[in-house]
Each structure stands twice: as C-alpha cells, then as structure tokens.
Write a structure and sequence with these properties.
This protein is an alpha+beta fold. The chain has 4 domains: 80 residues, no CATH class; 257 residues, 3-Layer(aba) Sandwich (Rossmann fold), CATH 3.40.50; 120 residues, no CATH class; 66 residues, no CATH class. Helix content is 33%, strand content 19%. It has 22 helices and 26 strands. The protein has an 11-stranded mixed beta sheet with strand order 8-7-26-9-25-24-10-11-13-12-23, with helices on both faces. It has a 6-stranded antiparallel beta sheet with strand order 16-15-17-20-19-18. Strand 21 and strand 22 form a beta hairpin. It starts with a helix and ends with a helix.
Length: 658
C-alpha cells in the first residue's frame, strides 16, 4: 500500500472526515490540520510511515508535526497522484495571504517542481537530456531509493610514492576524497559519514546562461534550475557543522532567486555577505555592446548557525598609506632622543635627489619605489593618531595629559598583549611595521578585506593546476581567501561542483582536508589530474604564498553504475541484430524508463527491427532509465550487480560498517 492509500485508510477511521456519500472530506481534515487537532494527530501517529513522513523528532524525544507539508499533501486534487505541483506558472513570489507558505511565514519562492527531487544526471558536456523529477511527498519510496547511500567502486589512492595510483581497501577520517558520479546522489551518500562534519562548502553553481561551459544542463529554465539547486542545498545544510559556512559563486542571472532560496533553507539571519568579485577586465568583445560592461560575479556567504559562526580576520594588500609620514632618523637610540623628519625628505636623502625632483627623476616607477622604501624602513616610519579617552585605560589617559604639558617629550607605556604605546604631544605614534603583512608571498601594507574583491584574478589563470578548463576555472586566490576567512588548518572543505579542481588544489596547499564531487567525463582527465599535479608540486596559483613544495594524497573512486553498462553496449553496437539482443536484455532487467509500456514494446518488436541502426540506438537510449544508473549500498551483496570483494571491503571502511 502506498503512502496516500495509508493516509486515506487512517483518516477514514474518524467518521467526521467521511461524508454520507463515503467520500473523504478534505476540507475538514485541512481545518483540523491547521488547528493541530489532537484527535487527528493521534490518528496520524498510529501509522508508522505517516509518522516518519510528517513528524520530526527533537533531541528531547518530542515529535514536531509538519502541518504545512501534510496540509499541502491532502489539499492536492485526488492527493495529486501525478507530478504536478502547486502552480503551472513559471516562477513568482508568494505573499502572506498565500495558503502554501513555508512555516517561517517569510517570502518564499514558488515554482513548479519545488516539492520535487531533480536528479540532474549528465556525464558529457554536450549532453542536454530531459530530467526526471521525483515528488518528495507523492513518490517517497522512489525518493528514498534515489537518495539512499550508493556503492563506491574503483577506490585508488594517489600520493608521491604512488603518483599513478594504488588500489586501496580502506578509508580514514583524514583522507582527501574525489568521487565521480551524480552530485546529488554522492552528497546524499556522504551524509552517512559526514553529516555535521563539514566546515566549509564552496560551490561554483551552474550559471543557467545557456552559454557557459560549466558542463551541467545550463539551459535549465528558472523553475528547473531552482529545483536542481534546492535539492542539493538542503543536503548541504545537513553536511555542515553548526559553525560551518557555505559560499556560492553565482552571476547576475540567478543571484536574486538564489538569495531567496538560500534565505529559505539557511535562514535570512544566516546571510553574512554578498561579495562582488571582479572576474574580468573591460576589454575585448565585452566592450562592443553599449551600456555597462559586466565584469563582476558574486560570492554569497551564509553561516549554518549565526550564533556560533566565527570567521577569521583576513587582510588584503593595499598601497602605501601616506598618513605614515614621519621618519625617525635615529631609531636605534633611546626613544627619549628620537629625532624626526618627513618620509619624503628621508626618501630624497637616500636617493640623493632633491625632494622637488623626485617625481621627475623616478617617472612611472615613483609610487613603486616609494612604497619599497617605506616597507624597507617601516620600523622607523610612524604616524600620529589621536587617543580616544573612552576606549583607553586610565594609565594611558594620565600619560596623554602629561604629554600635552611636555609636548617635546616622548612617553613609553609597555604592553604584554599588544603593541607598546609611544605618546608624544597627546598623540600615539603608530609604526608602519605593524600595518605590514605577508600577502601572496610579498610583504605589503594591508587592510581588512571588504565585500569588493578586485584583486583575486591572476594573469596566468590558464596555467593554474596544470590543466585546461575553458571559461570555468576559478582562481586559487579566490578559493584561498574564502578558506582563510571561513576555515582553519585541518578543517574539512566540500565542493560538489568540482570542475577543474581548484578547491582541492587550494585546500591541499593550505593544509585543509577536502572532498570533491563531479559527474562529468573531465573528472578523470582534469579534476583528478590537477590534484596529481598538486601532489607533484604545482608552482602556480597560491603555491608561493603557502610555500607549497608538493606532497599530500587523495582517494579517487566513483559510484557503481547499474544501467551504464547498457549505455556502453548501445554506443558500441554495430548491427540491428545486436540491438535487438540488447533491447531484450534491457527489458529483462526491468530498469527502464517509467513511461515505457512493456506490452507495446513486445508487441511491436517487428517494427523495432525495421528501424535504422541509429534510430534503434536512439530509442534504446531513451528506454534505459538514466535515474537507475547506480547501485544502492543495500544491494551490494546482490550477485546481479557483481560488486568485487575489494570494493565491498572499501565500502565497509568508508561507511564504517566494520
């Protein structure tokens, strides 16, 4: 009996829900649902599957009734046995008088398929197939099977001693991981081991422009794209630690919709930053069309729980701050005897050039040469800063006032937990050396980063990682900054749109643990190869900043394929007779498209034989259920799937079944 039959059976036990014509009074049920009627709740709790579907247990053992989900379920026509959802319109915003708002009562995106799971399967960049939707409530058994943990096969460990890979049977808590396979199914499988363990999730989402080469079905309409993202973000939420962060790169096409979706899943209170990233220069074809030249994309940052979120303080490079304009001539003498001149006077003296001639003498190199001079002498260059008596100690206030009475004298207050105070004429002397930091391998003036990042695009992005990835490669400096902001050494980082592997390369160089997921063919040729190059000491990207010399390791594996064997056979088929044999094998397994009519196929086999070879192949590709491509962990012992003993051992280790 399916879920809807069970709901009807249970509701019919209460006479007030059944009319004299023996039909279910859904309006009465809906009214009691909204009132949280105790008799109704007792009825629903009496059936185990209904309880599991519509009640959520708390840590204290209580059960919370999801009345909106149940109300939506019974409000659909005939319990909606098909896959239609609330509206047929493309996309919109619900308002407070809309019946089907989320429990929070905030503005919520409404779109077709919102209550569905979209698998989003694809393996080749040029493959744009129709997607299969599973409805969360209407097809719970299908969804549960779809999202159940999957079998992993072909586990291979790569490190400096085994750069070509070595088969492995075990997986440890500190191991890095690359998984090839449908990312929805992979991250759902990861829940079994990694729920609540990931410190940072970074994803470069499909931009839905129809022109990028990210590799996913980037011709999604809005509703399909939103469904695709919603499914994955809901699982991402479960994978994050309470103090974790999710960061998403997105362009202007979908940023508005994505923000509302993220607000719904993570909570608007967890929205931390919308960062503008300069991704290109205003040159080339971009400047041909009139209007504003688009050179920006965005990084959206959300915390998992704002009450425990503690990002790191991160600094970016900046030029010489000319407020540091005093030069201490005799810095090595006792501070009481310090003498001062201007920085420009000291600069001119060192170059043996008149101050008025500096600009002409140095030409275009003036600013760079001055900056280098200041950095070289930062230990003896200072600026004066006022002392706010409301934010300093009583001792400092007393010394400040004393210095005003003796304006030519320098006073010193040593401190253990901060820079010493040097006070002259009521002002603090701040040293330039305390503003210098090593950024990107270079000592420079710095300032806390803002929400505009115009300094993360390198000149040699195409060389990073030693792999080619047209239009989709993210700079290691971008990922490095996000990781510096949101993680510490040893933390776990997940990227389930791995692409060229930038996240893994940056994580390895920064001492973070990583998991990469992608389903495309390039996962083997590009993503995996980039991490091999990193182990070998790739010198591009952030290597200089972190003094990367190579090393590290990772395990590569993929989801165990089920119907993929038929896809390969179809591709290699050379005769109509072979096609007929393959067709019979496909029908025998039963793993076919849900829309397939077995009787019609068997009755029309002669018509099938009359088709051309290409037509037969095309038909069989459509017949194969592409949403049954992978083997569930629960079926690992089934001889039909021929999972090797080595793969079984690895899965026991990975899923901690030993």
């Amino acid at each position: 009996m399916d879920l809807y039959s069970k709901i009807e059976t249970v509701l019919r036990k209460q006479t007030k829900y059944v009319s004299t014509e023996d039909t279910l009074l859904k309006n009465v049920v809906l009214e009691d649902t909204m009132k949280m009627d105790s008799d109704l709740i007792d009825l629903l709790l009496s059936e185990e599957e209904i309880k599991n579907r519509f009640f959520t247990p708390t840590k204290s053992g209580c059960l919370v009734f999801d009345k909106m989900k149940f109300g939506w379920t019974i409000s659909n026509k005939e319990f909606l046995p098909d896959s239609y959802t609330r509206y047929e319109k493309k996309i919109g915003l619900s308002s407070d008088n809309e019946h089907y708002l989320t429990a929070s009562g905030d503005v919520s995106l409404i779109f077709p398929h919102k209550d569905c799971i979209l698998e989003g399967g694809q393996t080749k960049e040029d493959q744009k197939r129709d997607e299969v939707f599973y409805n969360e409530t209407l097809a719970p058994d299908q969804v549960d099977k779809l999202l159940a943990p999957k079998v992993l096969v072909g586990a291979t460990r790569y490190d400096k001693d085994h750069i070509d890979g070595e088969k492995t049977l075990d997986f440890g808590d500190k191991d890095n991981l690359i998984v090839r396979g449908n990312n929805l199914l992979v991250i759902s499988s990861l829940l079994k081991r990694y729920a609540g363990r990931v410190k940072l999730i970074y994803i470069d989402v499909p931009y839905n422009t129809g022109s990028d080469s990210f590799g996913y079905n980037d011709r999604f309409n809005h509703s399909t794209w939103l469904c695709f993202m919603r499914n994955r973000l809901q699982i991402a939420y479960q994978l994050l630690r309470k103090e974790g962060t999710i960061a998403l790169s997105v362009d202007n096409y979908e940023v508005g919709y994505l923000l509302v979706l993220l607000d719904e899943i993570f909570g608007k209170e967890n929205r931390k930053n919308i960062i503008t990233v300069k991704r290109a220069s205003a040159t080339g074809a971009k400047v041909i069309n009139p209007g504003v030249v688009n050179v920006a994309e965005y990084v959206l940052i959300y915390s998992r729980d704002t009450t425990v979120w503690k990002p790191n303080r991160v600094f970016g490079a900046t030029g010489y701050n000319d407020r540091y304009n005093k030069y201490i001539i005799n810095i090595d003498e006792d501070y009481h005897n310090w003498e001062f001149m201007t920085v420009l006077d000291a600069f001119a003296f060192e170059l043996q050039v008149k101050k008025s001639k500096l600009s002409k003498f140095l030409g275009d190199s003036y600013e760079e040469t001055l900056n280098n001079f200041v950095i070289k002498h930062a230990h003896q260059i200072v600026r004066e800063a006022s002392l706010d008596e409301s934010s300093v100690s009583a001792e400092v206030i007393e010394v400040k006032r004393q210095s005003l009475n003796e304006p030519d004298k320098i006073f010193h207050i040593p401190r253990e937990d901060a820079n010493d105070y040097y006070i002259k004429n009521g002002s603090a002397l701040l040293f330039a050396k305390h503003r210098l930091r090593n950024i990107d391998g270079k000592l420079t003036f710095s300032q806390p980063i803002t929400d505009i990042w115009d300094d993360v695009l390198p000149n040699d992005l195409h060389n990073e990682g030693g792999v080619e990835f047209k239009k989709g490669k993210k700079p290691e400096k971008l990922l490095g900054r996000i990781m510096e902001l949101c993680t510490n050494e040893g933390d776990l980082v997940l990227d389930f749109f791995a692409g060229s592997g930038t996240t893994g390369g940056a994580a390895m160089k920064m001492g973070r643990q990583f998991i990469l997921v992608d389903q495309m063919d390039y996962t083997e040729t590009t993503t995996r190869q980039r991490l091999i190059n990193t182990i070998n000491g790739d010198s591009h990207g952030i290597s200089k900043t972190y003094n990367w010399q190579g090393g590290g390791s990772f395990v590569y594996c993929k989801l165990a394929e089920l119907n993929e064997k038929f896809m390969t056979q179809i591709e290699n088929c050379e005769t109509c007779e072979e096609c007929v044999a393959i067709l019979e094998s496909i029908l025998e397994t039963g793993y076919v498209n849900d829309n397939a009519d077995f009787r019609e196929i068997n009755k029309s086999i002669d018509e099938f034989k009359l088709l051309s070879l290409d037509e037969q192949k095309e038909l069989m590709c459509k017949l194969v259920d592409k949403n049954m491509l992978y083997v569930n962990l629960s079926d690992i012992e089934d001889s039909e799937f021929a999972i090797s003993e080595n793969d079984k051992t690895f899965n026991r280790s990975f899923y901690k079944q030993e």
